[in-house]
């Protein structure tokens, strides 16, 4: 009887401890983020790594953990400030920017906005929160102090260095005779005429559907033959002589040629305002980590420093996740 009583007490103790174990990954200003949110995010990144042939086994899991926690903190902080300020997630401005994003998504090869959201572990509401946050803060001249802006920009001016770049479109064909014919026919053509020819003639299906547009690119991003021609060609012209590369023959239309330059605070004031506002939010936030969730070598009562983040152009600013983002 005594052994049975001891066993029952032991089982009850285990049940009690399990019930008392924290079910949150962290708390942001007192708002709990469920542990399941962290686990789902972690599974998402593992799946992304494996599907894209990254070496998941040798990946620094602590860095992944830190990035996920930072993303969860960011999402919650933005949600809190948007709710507090009562910024409209359905405003015409938010809808307009979201419509622009949806148009871009098709160029990334996604069949729909919902597919893009799923692939990037996002929801429509989260995207609207990010957009509303950026729009409202960027336009508010009193959102952060001039001193804070200058201090932050001095420490991060490298983020606004712009390398030499070219914005161009191309038509790719297989044989030289076709390329010579097209190049001759398109001399003096405007961008709309060139784009229509690209849709009809180019074998580069990825860009042909978008009128041959390759967007902007810097040195070292294209094959050498194409790059040399594009960077030396006059803006607003069609290449008179087709350029041969390993892919075939290219006819190029150069839309813009931007020299390298160091951006100023004045040129980037709206983005800087958003960044500084978020830094201030994060620095003053009360962060409490769940059991075993505090970043390595960081006490659970302290907010970890934000790690340096690779830039992801398709993702709105303030993203902190220091792991590869899905394309688009």
Description:
- Helix 3 (61-85) crosses helix 6, helix 4 (92-107) crosses helix 6 (124-139) and helix 6 packs across helix 12 (269-284).
- It is elongated, with a radius of gyration of 26 Å.
- The protein is α+β, with helices and mostly antiparallel strands.
- The protein has a four-stranded antiparallel beta sheet with strand order 5-4-7-6, with helices on both faces. A three-stranded antiparallel beta sheet has the order 2-1-9.
- Strand 6 (243-245) and strand 7 (248-258) form a beta hairpin.
- It has two domains: 40-159 and 264-289, no CATH class; 164-259, Chitinase A, domain 3 (Roll).
- The longest helix has 25 residues, at 61-85.
- The protein has helices spanning 2-20, 35-51, 61-85, 92-107, 113-119, 124-139, 146-156, 176-185, 191-201, 205-208, 224-232, 269-284, and strands at 24-28, 31-34, 161-162, 165-173, 213-218, 243-245, 248-258, 261-262, 287-289.
- The protein has twelve helices and nine strands.
Mean pLDDT: 84
Q: Sheet bearing the most strands, described? A: 4 strands, antiparallel
What oligomeric state best describes the polypeptide chains here? single chain
Q: How do the SSEs run, as a string of H and E?
A: HEEHHHHHHEEHHHEHEEEHE
Count of the separate structural domains: 2
SS element count, helices: 12
Number of strands: 9
| Termini separation | 65 Å
Q: List low-pLDDT spans.
A: 7-19, 298-328
As laid out across the biggest beta sheet, the strand order is: 5-4-7-6
What proportion strand? 5-15%
- Structural class of the helices, strands and pairings? alpha+beta
Question: How would you describe the shape?
Answer: elongated
Compute the CA-based radius of gyration.
26 Å
What percentage of residues falls in helices of 4 or more residues?
A: 40-55%
């Amino acid at each position: 009887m005594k052994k049975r009583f001891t066993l029952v007490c032991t089982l009850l103790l285990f049940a009690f401890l399990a019930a008392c174990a924290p079910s949150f990954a962290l708390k942001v200003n007192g708002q709990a983020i469920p542990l399941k949110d962290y686990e789902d995010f972690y599974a998402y990144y593992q799946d992304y790594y494996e599907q894209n042939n990254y070496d998941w086994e040798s990946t620094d899991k602590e860095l992944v953990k830190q990035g996920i926690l930072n993303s969860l903190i960011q999402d919650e902080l933005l949600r809190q400030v948007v709710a507090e300020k009562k910024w409209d997630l359905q405003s015409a401005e938010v809808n307009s920017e979201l419509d622009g994003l949806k148009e871009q998504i098709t160029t990334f090869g996604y069949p729909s906005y919902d597919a893009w959201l799923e692939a990037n572990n996002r929801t429509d509401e989260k995207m609207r929160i990010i957009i509303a946050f950026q729009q409202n803060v960027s336009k508010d001249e009193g959102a952060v102090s001039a001193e804070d802006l200058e201090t932050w920009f001095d420490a991060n001016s490298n983020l606004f260095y712009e390398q030499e770049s070219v914005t161009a479109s191309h038509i790719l064909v297989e044989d030289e005779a076709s390329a010579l014919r097209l190049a001759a026919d398109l001399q003096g053509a405007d961008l709309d005429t060139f784009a229509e020819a690209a849709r009809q003639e180019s074998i580069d299906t990825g860009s042909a559907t978008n009128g041959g547009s390759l967007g902007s690119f810097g040195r070292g991003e294209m094959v050498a033959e194409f790059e040399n021609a594009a960077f030396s060609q006059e803006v607003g012209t069609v290449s008179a002589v087709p350029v041969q590369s390993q892919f075939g023959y290219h006819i190029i239309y150069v839309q813009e040629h931007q020299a390298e330059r160091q951006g100023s605070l004045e040129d980037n004031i709206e983005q800087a305002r958003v960044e500084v506002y978020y830094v201030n939010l994060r620095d003053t936030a009360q962060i409490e980590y769940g059991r075993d969730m505090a970043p390595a070598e960081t006490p659970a009562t302290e907010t970890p420093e934000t790690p340096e983040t690779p830039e992801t152009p398709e993702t709105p600013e303030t993203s902190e996740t220091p792991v590869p983002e899905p394309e688009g």
